[in-house]
Amino acid sequence: MNEGTTMESIMGRMLDRIPNDLDKREGSIIYDALAPAAAELAQLYIELDLQLRFAYGTTSSGEYLALRTADYGVDRQLASPSRREGLFFGRGDEPLDVPIGSRYSAEDLIYVVREKMGSGVFVLECETPGAAGNTYYGPLLPVDYVNGLDRAELGDVLVPGEDDESDEALRARYLHRVRNPSSGGNAADYRDWAMSVAGVGGAKVYPLWDGPGTVKVVIVDSDKRPASPTLVAETAGQIETKRPIGAAVTVVSASAAPITVTSTVVLAAGYTLQAVTDAFAAALETHFRSIAFSASYVSIAGIGVLLLSVPGVLDYTGLTLNGGTGNVALDDEEIPTLAGAELGV
After folding, report:
1. Which family does it belong to (predicted)?
2. Is residue 87 within 8 Å of residue 153, measured between CB atoms?
């Protein structure tokens, strides 16, 4: 807004106020006296522009965005710990029950046993909040001696750990709140209640899905994958504390729609088929997360554009999705997941 208000323009206006019979050329006493003030005023206008941007949810960032969204009850979600499945075995690979609260290390992280799921199967929580607790799979080492323990493994992610909520995610929740005002248990309320649960990355709400007074909420986790039973139960519990009296709420996970992509490619010099396939698979994973809950089909044309954007791919032929040459339709409760990326030359 004040882009044109520079030191030079301010200096020009100030000098215009000085009578012409006085020396106001560059290097004169008057010029040198006014120059520092003009520089400070130009900096002030820059700061005013920044403050103006911080005042609006669409342009604000950082702590100023959090202050803006808090006015509408939308607080930045802080980092949350990953909750994982832990498998414990004694001699002869017999399932072993371990003490609640016992601690186990995996690389640089510590996981604590929180609750029992079954014989030798427990919920573990990472002591370090954030997404770092989601990535490791494999052996666990007890921090303290556990009687009878022969082997321990870290298994599936039950509730993904999340880093501090990004500005983009916070802004999206804020804009949804102000553009879809809540009203005594409407669909916007149910979505907001579901999205407030750590680990939930998306939600769809179906009012009256099974008759009057019924509401169905379909969720995915923060990686835009089908939610675990643990995350579904936590979301249902959160909504249960918020819902209007008399509402029958059902919370379920989105179902996976496996997509297998095959094609023949022309490689650029210096690239290997395996490296290109790995890069393509990673790009597909990112693309499928970006369209989860927002697209009604997987576009074969879009996949073709994505394939051409992979470094090392000059051209392709014979592109198929699940063996066909057309788009793959998605049901309302389905999200695309990568079943395989198979490239040939």
Report:
1. Belongs to the Mu gp47/PBSX XkdT family.
2. yes
Sign of CA dihedral 207, 209, 212, 217: negative
Cβ atoms of 256 and 220 closer than 8 Å: no
- The tens digit of pLDDT for each residue in 97-110 reads 999 999 999 989 99
pLDDT given at position 3? 65
The domain 180-253 having CATH identifier 3.30.300: the answer here is yes
How wide is the angle at C-alpha 116 spanned by C-alphas 115 and 122, nearest 5°? 90
230-245 average pLDDT score: 91
| Residue 3 burial (10 A CB sphere; 0-12, 13-18, 19+) | exposed
Beta bridge partners of 317: 264
Give the predicted TM-score (pTM) of the model: 0.68
Q: What angle do CA 247, 225, 325 make, to 5 degrees?
A: 115
Q: According to the model, what pLDDT value does residue 287 have?
A: 94
Question: Is 86 within 8 Å of 100 (Cβ atoms)?
Answer: no
Which phi and psi (to 5°) does residue 97 adopt? -85, 130
**Domain coordinates in residue numbering, the chain:** 7-54, 83-159, 180-253, 257-344
